[in-house]
């Protein structure tokens, strides 16, 4: 059963308020819950803040969960549904975290406004608020449906194909990957780059002076589940240092570093990481927000297309 994505459209994702521009033609509208559940935003925000205080790593977890949800048959909160072969069980989603935050918010919202706020909107609000934390400090999709998620070894061409299929352009690709400015990744997803990547040794796109640090964090035959910052030196701040690291050969994931080595995306990385020059300069915070709006409107569900789940992990 689909969960419909009733309300939320985000403009500048870093702001605490909802967007000021309505996109009702896309099936969403601003301030959707202002009359039916006026405390919806404040409940979600307080829940995210509470979990963030005890575990700051929950912020990138929620952001990543929202991204993974939207790329598989749209932003319908299907990522939250339990089951033996559901979307949640697919390989790319096994290490996602933040489900407890969504469940916590849903329990409070059901107590305050029973049957009103959709799980899809809760996830979107939680993702938005998780970004704010970093700045200041449906249908049951199957596991097999996750093949269109961007992969950590994907070439830029493959990444662009996957984003284009969702109505997102190359600038959206670079901006949304910039969400890796917060959070961590397990060694198993990049340690292959450190040794025997080529006959000559490590991935040549890695800064040679950075290799000893990475090898110390993820030694051969070490713990593949050990977590390493995706944005070295700034993993808890939502900023542009991620792009500076790409310019310096310090991208952790192969797919991330390719945004610099590929000429079709390098200019955008330069614009996000460098100083603003006149009106043509790109501000990462603004462009990230715009791209999040576009992604959050992928295949939205409205009206009779879905249901408001009582519990986010199961269909009614």
TrEMBL record:
GO terms for molecular function: heme binding; lactoperoxidase activity; metal ion binding. One of its GO terms (biological process) is response to oxidative stress. It catalyses: 2 a phenolic donor + H2O2 = 2 a phenolic radical donor + 2 H2O. Binds 1 heme b (iron(II)-protoporphyrin IX) group per subunit. The active site is at residue 68. The record marks 64 as: Transition state stabilizer. Pfam families: peroxidase. It comes from the Eukaryota. Belongs to the peroxidase family. Classical plant (class III) peroxidase subfamily. Removal of H(2)O(2), oxidation of toxic reductants, biosynthesis and degradation of lignin, suberization, auxin catabolism, response to environmental stresses such as wounding, pathogen attack and oxidative stress. This is Peroxidase. It comes from Coptis chinensis.
């Amino acid at each position: 059963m689909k969960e419909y994505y009733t309300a939320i459209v985000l403009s500048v994702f870093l702001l605490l308020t909802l967007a000021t521009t309505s996109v009702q033609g896309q099936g969403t509208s601003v301030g959707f819950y202002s009359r039916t559940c006026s405390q919806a935003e404040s409940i979600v925000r307080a829940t995210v803040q509470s979990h963030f205080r005890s575990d700051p790593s929950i912020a990138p977890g929620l952001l990543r969960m929202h991204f993974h949800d939207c790329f598989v048959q749209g932003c319908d909160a299907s990522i939250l549904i339990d089951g033996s072969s559901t979307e949640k069980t697919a390989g790319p989603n096994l290490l996602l975290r933040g489900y407890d935050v969504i469940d916590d918010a849903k329990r409070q919202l059901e107590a305050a406004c029973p049957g009103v706020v959709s799980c899809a909107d809760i996830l979107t609000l939680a993702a938005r608020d998780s970004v704010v934390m970093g700045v200041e400090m449906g249908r049951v999709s199957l596991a097999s449906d996750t093949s269109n998620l961007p992969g950590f070894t994907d070439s830029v061409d493959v990444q662009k194909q996957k984003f284009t299929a969702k109505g997102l352009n190359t600038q959206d690709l670079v901006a949304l990957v910039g969400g890796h400015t917060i959070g961590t990744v397990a060694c198993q997803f990049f340690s292959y780059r450190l040794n025997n990547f080529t006959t000559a040794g490590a991935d040549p796109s890695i800064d040679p002076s950075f290799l000893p640090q990475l090898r110390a964090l993820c030694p051969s035959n070490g713990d593949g589940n050990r977590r390493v910052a995706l944005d070295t030196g700034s993993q808890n701040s939502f900023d542009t240092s991620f792009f500076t690291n790409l310019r310096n050969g310090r991208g952790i994931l192969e797919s991330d570093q390719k945004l610099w080595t590929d000429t079709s995306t390098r200019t955008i990385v330069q614009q996000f990481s460098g100083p603003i020059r006149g009106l043509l300069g790109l501000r990462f915070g603004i462009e990230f927000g715009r791209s999040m709006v576009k992604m959050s409107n992928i295949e939205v569900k409205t009206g009779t297309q879905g249901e408001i789940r009582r519990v986010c992990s199961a269909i009614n």
